[in-house]
Amino acid sequence: MSIYKRGDIYWYKFMWNGKLVRQSTKQGNDKVARQMEAAHRTSLAKGEVGIREKRVPTVKDFLKEDFLPFAETKHASKPLTLRYYRQGSDMLLKSPIAGLRMNELNDSHAQDFVRKHSRLSASGINRGLRTLRRALNLAYQWGKLDKPIKVTLATGEHQRERVLTSEEAIRYLNACGQPWRDCAALILDEGFRPSEVFALRWPHILFSEDGTGLIQVVAGKSKAARRILPMTPRVRAMLEARWRAAGRPSDGWLFPRRRIPERHINGDSVKDQHKRALAKSGVEPFEFVPYSLRHTGLTKLGESAGGNVFVLARIAGHASIATTQRYIHPQADAINDVFGASQRRLGGHKTGHTSEILCFEAAQTKSES
After folding, report:
1. How many other C-beta atoms can be found within 10 angstroms of the C-beta atom of residue 30?
2. Using alpha carbons only, what angle is made at residue 15 by residues 13 and 18, rounded to the nearest 5 degrees?
3. 295 — phi, psi (to 5°)?
4. Which of 161, 162, 209, 287 is the most exposed, having the fewest neighbouring CB atoms within 10 Å of its CB?
């Protein structure tokens, strides 16, 4: 017997005459599910029923009837993510891929998509391909596909790896208007994602009596994104000033929209402020997007962490250290120190072990943003 649970419903699957049989029992009781599987096997053995052919939807039907409604519910609080998937779906719906059944797709269709959109940047092409990849993964999870389908992304996509110099960062921050200046300082000092800063609420901020403080991120791209970080002195001063100016609130957004205070600002809200700051500061705008502030902050923190990728991954909220390694750039002196320490250890010499370990442990609150 091979039953498994998807959500609250049990499914069963088994091989019969070299073909896969997969069926939802529409039941939440495992005993009933096993009985239904046994009955299906018995019916097949008696020749009473044939293999039930699964109707696989076209890409067009799945996007419109399943994927987009799912995205609108799943990402209702993340307008930029929702817009990304909507734009990616629109690209796919206008392409020949839309008319194919999902089990007919293979990576060659994805590469045809790349060639037909060659006029676009790699990131523009990958908007459609990432949407397709996500849709196919969901179709497999929901039992509409019997096996996952590989989709290779277009190469040459920029990774937003611009790192600002200290002088550029100062000029840029001084040229920023509010509330973007405070948001930018938070991203730069703490290494937060812009979306994490936009969604901060006052219950996520703890001011300590000793002049320090903690910031809690309660939601994000993955479980690893939920973390607590200490405030830098500049961030402490900035947040306390903002808190006092707001009347010492106990709840609400740190960065509410001016005209719709029940909502927080987002990436669209700060686009114009970012452009004005670039023009006013004279900082080279090439590949300088708001996310560059996070990359700059994490690169600086990576230097302070002494190349400890695991500590930096905790700070950054990364689910994989493979992502964090982009921010670790060990210098020749640091490499030589490691090898020298290793040789001294092998030779029996005692060596000093000095490393700063950042550990931010706090109870996760149950409050929702």
Report:
1. 14
2. 150
3. -65, -40
4. 209
